[in-house]
Design a protein that fits this description.
Distance between the termini: 99 Å
CATH topology of the largest domain: Jelly Rolls
Oligomer: single chain
Number of helices: 4
Shape: elongated
CATH architecture of the largest domain: Sandwich
Strand order of the largest sheet: 2-3-11-5-9-8
Keywords: Disulfide bond, Repeat, Signal
Pfam family, one: DUF4215
Number of domains: 4
InterPro entries: Growth_fac_rcpt_cys_sf, Myxo_disulph_rpt
CATH class of the largest domain: Mainly Beta
Protein name: Insulin-like growth factor binding protein, N-terminal
Helix content: under 10%
Radius of gyration: 48 Å
Largest sheet: 6 strands, antiparallel
Number of strands: 43
């Protein structure tokens, strides 16, 4: 709705609506429009205000007839992008819940305008309330049914009146009453607009079930040289979170009008009840198998029989805990609930103990119950850190050197190896300077132990057992690789060899990835190597 003329001015990408009021009349250029809105509790209003920079404007913005914003243009910094007009950006967030809103703009001067008008709504409480009744929420309505009518003096009022661009239900007296039948609930909320006409200071009283619950007053009217709808006042009534459990509800609106020289009406009525759920239990979470799920009793995890969420019996393989929970048995080789592992036994230090990962003894680096690195002088064998002497003793190997081994040790000038408990650990075939063929060593070994190998097998001095004569591919016929004369073997510097993997080296040699490596600069002289000295430095 516009009072007096307007024009549209094009400025780049913007179309500006310019209000042209009559000269010599202040507050005569006015525009107003009513918008229907969905459910919401907040509106955002934004637009560009255009004025002539040479004028001293007072600009008024009304929302539902209540002053929302007053702008004195003398205090503004305008963007002069469409001479002779400059613009100013306006953006307002307004708490609002009615099903319609009327925006009114007016200024004391002529030749002002607006562009890029936007109106948006937000709803932050939509899941907390249920809309059970709504009426007079359309901008324009032509009839009112008996069900939608409100009573005045025991007579149902169905009279429709209009103001500016909207309709409302008019009362024939000073009050309006309506009764409602509601479903099961515990709280109510409702809102409506009370429009009071030709009464300077307006007051509206709200009663619920004949009890006064609110009194609101307002004297806010649109400032204009013209009389708009008998200078009406809008009172926005909003009752929230009112405790109410009865299935019968009566709402009454009272004013001071007489129904003739002054009168009132209502519109935008909405009634809500809380979302009332019939539930057996409520634990305020969405976790299943905890005794209550989706507001209904359920059994705990592992429970076979429960009453009102309390477990009576557990499933096979579970036992009833004192805290009304079923706990799985540990050690049954079944992985359940909080068990990280279950190896079917209660043996400690085997990678899994009490259904949790555990590290083997003498392990310094363990990942998911598997040892990755043992302590010094321990070897990782079958997921255990085992002392070399203990392991070979358990396997039945002899730790006392034979006469032939003693002779070889003396000749090689390596007698001190015997003192380091390397007896019987295949040190004979590990000497670089004194290498004996498998035939010679086997012959010596036969003399001591009277051991013979089957056909197509050959005795391995490193393994001290018979192996197939060709179980690996010997590409290089040197006893420095993993295969020598078709026998899996370790390099000469290895003291303990198991399945072509070395677990101990000569003094001064470093064990890296089951290989013996001579490293210059490690402050150790690698026996039988070409090192003559090692001061731990790499400088010349």
């Amino acid at each position: 709705m516009e009072y007096h003329s307007y024009s549209v001015v094009n400025c780049g990408l913007s179309n500006i609506v310019i209000m042209n009021q009559c000269l010599n009349y202040y507050f005569n250029g006015l525009t107003s429009k009513t918008f229907e809105l969905p459910l919401h509790d907040l509106i955002n209003l934004s637009f560009k205000l255009w004025i002539k920079s040479s004028y001293q404007y007072k600009f008024y913005l009304y929302v539902d007839n209540n002053l929302q914003l007053l702008i004195l243009t003398s205090q503004l910094s305008l963007t002069n992008n469409c001479p002779p007009y400059g613009s100013y950006q306006i953006s307002q967030n307004i708490v609002h819940s009615s099903s319609s809103v009327q925006i009114t703009m007016v200024s004391n001067e002529n030749y002002w305008g607006f562009s890029e008008f936007n109106l948006n709504v937000e709803n932050t409480t939509q899941n907390l309330w249920e809309l059970v009744y709504q009426s007079f929420n359309k901008q324009v309505f032509s009839s009112i049914s008996l069900d939608d009518g409100w009573m005045t003096n025991n007579i149902i009022s169905q009279q429709i009146s209009s103001c500016t661009d909207f309709n409302y239900l008019k009362s024939q007296g000073d009050n309006l009453i309506k009764d409602f039948a509601l479903k099961h609930h515990s709280m109510i909320s409702f809102n409506l607009k009370v429009l009071i006409f030709n009464y300077p200071t307006s007051t509206a009283k709200i009663k619920i079930d004949n009890e006064l619950v609110a009194t609101q007053s307002s004297n806010s009217q649109v400032l204009s040289s013209m009389i708009i709808c008998q200078n009406f006042t809008v009172i926005q009534v909003e009752i929230s979170n009112f405790e109410h459990k009865s299935e019968n509800l009566r709402i009454e609106v009272l004013t001071q009008t007489d129904g003739s020289t002054s009168w009132f009406g209502i519109r935008d009525f909405s009634l809500f009840t809380d979302i009332y759920e019939v539930y057996q239990c409520k634990d305020f979470n969405i976790q299943p198998f905890d005794g209550c799920f989706s507001n209904q009793y359920d059994c705990n995890l592992g429970c076979s029989n429960c009453i009102n969420g309390i477990c009576i019996n557990c499933l096979d393989g579970w036992y009833l805990h004192t805290k009304n929970t079923c706990i799985p048995f540990c050690g049954d080789n079944m992985l359940m609930l909080n068990e990280i592992c279950d190896d079917g036994n209660s043996i400690p230090y085997d990678g899994c103990h009490n259904c949790q990962f555990s590290c083997p003894l003498n392990c310094i680096l363990c990942v998911f119950g598997t040892c990755k690195e043992c302590e010094q002088s321990y070897f990782f064998i079958e997921n255990r850190c085992i002392s070399s002497i203990d392991y070979f003793e358990n396997k039945g190997y002899q730790y006392q050197p034979t006469s032939q081994q003693q002779s070889i040790l003396q000749k090689s000038n390596q007698q001190y190896l015997v003192k380091k408990n390397y007896y019987g650990l295949n040190i004979i075939s590990s000497f670089l300077n004194f290498y004996f063929s498998d035939y010679l060593i086997t012959r010596y070994y036969y003399q001591d132990r009277q051991t013979e190998c089957e056909e197509d097998s050959k005795f391995s001095p490193n393994k001290r057992q018979c192996v197939q004569t060709c179980n690996c591919q010997d590409l290089v016929s040197q006893q420095t690789n993993d295969c020598y004369i078709c026998i899996q073997n370790c390099q000469l510097e290895c003291l303990i060899c198991l399945q072509d993997k070395c677990y101990a080296c000569f003094e001064g040699w470093q064990l890296v990835d089951n290989k013996c490596q001579q490293i210059c600069g490690d402050n150790q002289i690698a026996l039988t190597s070409n090192e003559q000295c090692d001061d731990g430095q790499s400088d010349y």
